[in-house]
């Protein structure tokens, strides 16, 4: 930014979508340079006003420009080579030779575009390398991979690059005072975060921003921390997958699976990181509850049905088009909640249940349901969804009339009386009228968060941290919850559109639940 006036002392500026601010000149009339990192592609603009020493502002100057999409990776190994391969082909870059401790053709993290992975045995021969650098450590770069550790009780490296008898950078698992953590180290700066779990997939991305000298670590698409004042090595040695160079040779060999290693020669912005780490949820079941045969309401794709207990029935309304305002003699029959029918529960013994657990509560999952309470002032709490373990429910979605809230309750352990995480949203009881409410439960094991959505929305009161999910073994229950050795909290009302997914749906996808179709999950 510059001005022909020699008494300009500062400039106010603003980019489309931010940032904005005021920056001072080193001396009156001097130009000013500021760094700007666009966070998305497309048309942008910058507006600037010059301020003189008396505080007067110039007119607004505007500069329009276009930001191109970020460059593709400069190196990428999908690691989906045939099982008998001795090297990994590079989609971009140089093929990586494999040690004898590498096994191709491994399993992939579900919901990703990966087609195969490699298993490294943790020994001296468990590595891959192109025998050449993948990036210039003195410039901005990002390195990422899908990983699944077979153990977490020692330091292990996912990827690194040699430099002067030591790794120029190291992305992997490191032990801290508090236990194992994911870690990214470069040029004396280290950033750690996230808890590695044996046998659990995670997406890691380490980023070095040469403009700011900062290192960042992303775990499963979320930034876990930043370290400043990184001073990268001047030399660039060979890129390594599964090991790191030390004074006594290579060590910290990875034991576990690795997939889709990518290297970018630029800053990868947060939206791109989230997309790289995205795991598309998988539909486990969709019960539209429009009909029932022999006491069972079918799943839309031919999966296991929901079996109706005593006090539960399917309401289908009427085919007649009765409009009382036009024909006072006709009897109006309300339509079902969604589609051609819904489940009606009597509040005493009515429920529906699957044959076994539907969602894995120890991993990310999503449940959606449409529910309408029959009473305007219920006499006791009522549960619409639950799934039990050996000693308690892994989760309950219930209405609490004392607080006028829908609640999501998730115990921290499968123990009677275990501490519980409870989140809620205030909702007035329906009293049998209206279209009910669309409820959704989202547990994200990657971020250890639980969320309760009502009609597509959540908030801070409906969000909490749950450090350790646990695997329930009981059947998915519609309309009741465990009560001691039996059942209780029977729901009096209507239920429709029960949907279950493995994986955590994103906010935009949650908004589409309960509409009678499955969300796009684009």
Describe the protein.
- This protein is mostly beta strands.
- The chain has 3 domains: 8-67, Immunoglobulin-like; 75-276, Jelly Rolls (Sandwich), CATH 2.60.120; 282-510, Jelly Rolls (Sandwich), CATH 2.60.120.
- 2% of the residues lie in helices and 44% in strands.
- It has 2 helices and 40 strands.
- The two termini are 41 Å apart.
- 42% of the residues are buried.
Count of helices?
Answer: 2
Multimer state: single chain
In the CATH hierarchy, the third-tier topology of the largest domain is known as: Jelly Rolls
Question: What is the CA-CA span between the terminal residues?
Answer: 41 Å
Percentage of residues assigned to helices:
under 10%
Number of separate strands: 40
How would you sum up this structure in a few lines?
With 522 residues, this protein is an all-beta fold. 2% of the residues lie in helices and 44% in strands.
Give the key terms.
522 residues, mainly beta, Immunoglobulin-like, Jelly Rolls, eight-stranded antiparallel β-sheet, 2 helices, 40 strands
Write the layout of secondary structure elements.
Elements: E1 8-15, E2 20-24, E3 42-52, E4 61-67, E5 75-77, E6 87-88, E7 96-98, E8 102-106, E9 117-121, E10 128-129, E11 141-149, E12 156-163, E13 166-176, E14 179-186, E15 189-193, E16 202-209, E17 214-219, E18 222-227, E19 239-241, E20 244-246, E21 249-251, E22 255-264, H1 270-276, E23 282-287, E24 296-297, E25 306-308, E26 312-315, E27 342-346, E28 352-353, E29 365-373, E30 382-388, E31 393-400, E32 405-411, E33 420-426, E34 437-444, E35 449-454, E36 463-465, E37 476-478, E38 481-483, E39 486-488, E40 492-502, H2 507-510
Antiparallel strand pairs: 1-2, 1-3, 3-4, 5-22, 6-7, 7-10, 8-9, 9-22, 11-16, 11-22, 12-13, 12-19, 13-14, 14-15, 16-17, 17-18, 20-21, 23-40, 24-25, 25-28, 26-27, 27-40, 28-37, 29-34, 29-40, 30-31, 30-37, 31-32, 32-33, 34-35, 35-36, 38-39
